[in-house]
Amino acid sequence: LHVRSRRQRQMCIRDSTKLGRVSGGKRTGVCPLHKDTDPSFTVYLDTNSFFCFGCHKGGDVITLFYALREK
After folding, report:
1. What is the pLDDT along the chain (71 residues), one digit of tens a residue?
2. DSSP characters for 28-50?
């Protein structure tokens, strides 16, 4: 499994949360890592990274994969 490929990144993120449309090279949605009601989870498409402004967690797709497994 090569999670750093574009398709694997999209599948990992898509399966964990619903993201809005692309705007300025990023997509936002509700964070899958904590109870969230506002779209505080941001995926940066140019750097293949994410950051949540609610729980202050961030990293690449592998960090997200492991964080979701621990949840």
Report:
1. 455 555 555 556 666 778 888 889 898 999 999 998 999 999 888 888 899 999 999 998 888 888 888 87
2. EE--SSS--SS--EEEETTTTEE
